[in-house]
């Protein structure tokens, strides 16, 4: 049996074994993190390009692990998706964001829309969670506008998950939808209309290339013009320089998000910078 076991795995290189071990440990820690609520939401403002004021905010998950430290979502979201753990994580994100929105309304008297990221895997496995979400919004006496859902382009191409029906249910419930990372996938603008998308987020890679790439400039301008013709608002992601901000504003982009304005902030930092009544 020992010999067999060895044979079975002899084609694994040490680095593959290491990776498998690393992955197993990560999954185990993730399960622990879910049951022990080790996650946190950070908040990054989305700025109105006309007024320069905050328009809404995107919630971005962080995992604060005892020995791993602060783990970035790029390190664990894909594993969470492969294992289905993203469903529990995603529901936690929704509940946390909804409670935060209610709390901010109570404390600061404003209902600021919070955008959350929803994985295609959550759409696949959804079941009844959407009605649970609506029930929670009602329970907290939030408007359906309180939470916006960010989806990615790939989702729109996958008809197998009943995506059309699900997104139309969002529309009927009055929940807004953003299309994240626009331009990196395969979706056409025709999809945006079909699914009643409210916001389109120009991917950071386009924003980054504005200074160097004339094709990137033409693409950004064309995306903004066409989105507006379809009645869709445009958010530019990854705005880091004044040049980018000025270019996008001139091109008619509605909103912008990026380090130029603020990094994703811890709740308390966010409140201090954006929600406290301003003192003169
Ligand atoms: P995303 O939804 O495209 O989020 C934007 C990412 O860009 C965030 O990275 C944000 O911190 C970063 N960012 C914002 N402004 C700038 C900038 O000016 N320059 C640069 N270089 N980066 C900027 P983060 O927080 O590490 O999240 C990475 C990805 O992880 C997100 O990309 C999203 O796909 C995923 N993610 C984050 N939170 C969640 C969540 O709660 N659920 C799910 N399913 N995915 C999440
Ligand atoms: Ca996003
Ligand atoms: Ca809509
Ligand atoms: Ca994005």
From TrEMBL:
Residues of the EAL domain: 23-278
Name of the protein described by the UniProt record: Uncharacterized protein
Lineage of source species: Bacteria, Pseudomonadati, Pseudomonadota, Gammaproteobacteria, Alteromonadales
